TrEMBL record:
InterPro entries, per database record: TIR_dom (IPR000157), Toll_tir_struct_dom_sf (IPR035897)
Protein name in the entry: TIR domain-containing protein
SUPFAM superfamilies, sorted: Toll/Interleukin receptor TIR domain (SSF52200)
GO biological process, one term: signal transduction
Transmembrane regions: none
NAD is among the record's keywords: yes
Cross-referenced Gene3D superfamilies: Toll/interleukin-1 receptor homology (TIR) domain (3.40.50.10140)
Recorded superkingdom: Eukaryota
Residue ranges the record marks as coiled coil: none
Native species: Solanum verrucosum
Domain TIR: 11-167
Key words of the record: NAD
Signal peptide: none
Entry annotated with the keyword Heme: no
Length: 167
């Protein structure tokens, strides 16, 4: 199985892990990272600094671009992190531009909960962050919509959270 994920010269990493460290106490993500590495899958995860405070760096941007697959681990408070939102924005750009594969994981939450957190609680908080204008907030909403759509969650009504659509 690991041979399916061997890096092509173009890819520095097989997997980029996007997550909010504060929500995991590093256990879940550390175990996932170790298991991926154990079976020969080269993964990138940031160093666990507070994602609420860490800037979106050139290193992280490059790691996303140089990864064949991105796994976003959505947790209930994922959207409070500007770093996480910038990472998912870059990931969705790479999905479009480089045909990067994207796999969302909803860890102890549902898309509707993540959506509600963003739509109602943190929208105003993002406006308090320097540089977080309404255009950026709309971009984050669009990116989250796209990510949720990949797994079959769509926003049916603009005043309601995301709902699972069965095809």
């Amino acid at each position: 199985m690991a041979s399916q994920f061997l890096s092509v010269e173009k890819w520095k990493y097989d997997v980029f892990l996007n997550f909010l460290p504060e929500d995991f106490n590093e256990n879940f993500v550390t175990d996932l990272y170790k298991r991926l590495e154990d079976i020969g899958i080269k993964a990138f995860k940031h160093d666990g600094r507070s994602a609420k405070l860490a800037p979106f760096s050139a290193e992280i941007s490059e790691a996303i671009e140089e990864s064949r697959i991105a796994i976003t681990i959505f947790s209930e408070m994922y959207v409070v992190s500007r770093l996480c939102l910038e990472e998912i924005t870059k990931i969705m750009e790479c999905v479009d531009r480089y045909r990067q594969k994207f796999f969302p994981v909803f860890y102890r939450t549902e898309p509707s909960v993540v959506s509600l957190e963003f739509d109602f609680e943190h929208y105003d908080a993002l406006h308090d962050i320097p540089g977080a204008d309404s255009e950026r907030v709309q971009r984050y909403k669009d990116v989250l919509s796209k990510a949720f759509d990949i797994v079959g969650y769509k926003k049916v009504d603009s005043h309601k959270p995301f709902q699972h659509i069965r095809w």
